[in-house]
Amino acid sequence: MTLLLHHARFRFLESIREPVATVSSLLFPALFMVMFSVASSAVRDSAEHATASAGQMAFFALASAFAFNLGIGVAVDRDKPWELYVRALPVGAGAVLGGRLLNAAAIAVLSLVPVALVAGLLTEAHATPPRLVAALPVLLGCGLPFVFLGLAIGHSLPMKAAIPVVQLIMLPGSFLGGLWMPPSAFPAWLDPVSQALPTRAGRELVLGALTGTDPGPVALPVAIGWTVLLGALAVAAYRRDEGRRFR
Description:
This protein is mainly alpha-helical. The protein has helices at residues 2-16, 19-38, 41-45, 47-78, 81-88, 94-110, 112-122, 129-142, 144-154, 159-176, 191-195, 198-211, 219-246. Its main location: membrane.
């Protein structure tokens, strides 16, 4: 456990020493909330709409932080001689991977702070403390598919390919999942596609915990299904990469 925490501390210090990547993870979701939510009169004037908008943007912040931090971070580290040296040490992969995941979780949680500030200062969003406490583990649980997505991409692709692939998956996936605008604005033919995505499932589950609304019968099975599928892909990509480089 001590070694794992040392790796997590090293990863976190490395992240904050590259302010461009860290600041983008922290500020972009808040900027998107200003552009897509605060600019809407319905969100500004309605506590219900503002709270829902804050919840879905918080999930966008966390999911994006996981996918970009792990997807791009792993791909970048795979090209570094230092990473090869660290993995060749007789300490096993658990501490290295665990430290990386703890760092990604820390950045993801920190990304929620600017969104919360924008929601609290510029909108009528409101949630009781018990609702906020209940929403945090749901947020983290719904972020698992994006943890596995990032690991699968990072262990499968070089850095130059990982960056556009993460962007091409996360940006359309976030829009189609209703994280930038409510699914009620979608045309009827798009709604079934949206409900099959992990972004939409996560949105419904997070808003259910945050506001007490019914997430519907589809959200939880879809979230579990994507978690299992992407988890299997991440394990396969990790084993393939480790077997190729360290056998």
